[in-house]
Amino acid sequence: MNFLWNGPTRGPMLLLAHGSGAPMDSPFLETVATGLGERGLRVGRFEFPYMQKRRETGGKRPPDSREKLIACWREAVQAVPGPVVLAGKSLGGRIASYLADEVGARALVVLGYPYHPPGRPDSLRIEHLEHLQTPSLFLQGTRDVFGSPDEIASYPLSPSIRREWIADGDHAFVPRVSSGRTEQQNLALAVDRVVDFLQGI
Q1: Long-range CB pairs of 68-77, under 8 A, 24+ apart, other chains included
Q2: Which pairs with CB-CB distance under 8 Å and at least 24 residues apart come from 79-86?
Q3: Phi and psi based region of residue 122 (left: phi greater than 0; alpha: psi -120 to 50; beta: remaining)
Q4: Could you tell me what percent of the chain has a pLDDT over 70?
Q5: Can you say whether the dihedral through the CA atoms of 36, 108, 164, 198 is positive or negative?
Q6: Alpha-carbon distance 156 to 57, whole Å?
Q7: How far is residue 63's CA from residue 73's CA, in Å, rounded to a whole number?
């Protein structure tokens, strides 16, 4: 398994998985991983098999089955020593949430949880989140089409999940120009929120 590393060579370890449509070196993950690394976290990024195939062939491929994605996450955890923080963008975070308890993760961080497909609020992906025990931070843009603040407030989520919001952010935390905020500000805020959360546990 290939990793991209940011931050110190020793210290707290955070494994970071990509979302469904962008690889581990996407601008979003580059910015987040670099920011977390500069704050003292050792960040390791990896790719799921379907994304590796996309990189090799240049063709589009749908995500692997949930079972295969979970197996890949498990392999990533086993490849590094000691307890780790599991983190992921969208799909990567969702898959991490299925095995955080199993692997004894120190914490779970999800950057934009895909609570439901866009426009399909009845197709929820939260059945396992009610009983999640790992201390968790779910960061969500207030304009995220995969789950709005009003929708999420009604979900039966575990008390171990801390929900925080990125002002005017979409699924990638990008705000509208009219908000007066910038993408860079929102990504910096996301890094701050993750660091504050991890320091608190």
Answers
A1: 69/95, 70/95, 70/98, 70/99, 72/1, 72/46, 72/48, 73/17, 73/99, 74/99, 74/103, 75/1, 76/1, 76/3, 76/15, 76/17, 76/44, 76/46, 77/15, 77/103, 77/105
A2: 79/1, 79/3, 80/13, 80/15, 80/44, 82/13, 83/13, 84/13, 84/14, 84/15, 85/12, 85/13, 85/14, 85/15, 85/41, 85/109, 85/198, 86/14, 86/15, 86/17, 86/134
A3: alpha
A4: 100
A5: negative
A6: 41
A7: 14
Tokens of 140: 């969500």
**pLDDT one-digit tens code per residue, 36-53:** 999 999 999 999 999 999
Over residues 116-142, the pLDDT tens digits come to: 999 999 999 999 999 999 999 999 999
Query: With helix as H, strand as E and coil as C, how does 112-151 read?
Result: CCCCCCCCCCCCCCCCCHHHCCCCEEEEEECCCCCCCHHH
For the chain, domains (ranges, CATH) are: 4-200 (3.40.50.1820)
**Nearest-CA neighbor of 69 among 85, 45, 93?**
93
Q: In angstroms, rounded to a whole number, what is the distance separating the alpha carbons of residues 193 and 191?
A: 5
128 token code pair: 């396992």
- Angle value at C-alpha 84, between 155 and 42, nearest 5 degrees: 115
β-sheet bridge partners, residue 110: 88, 138
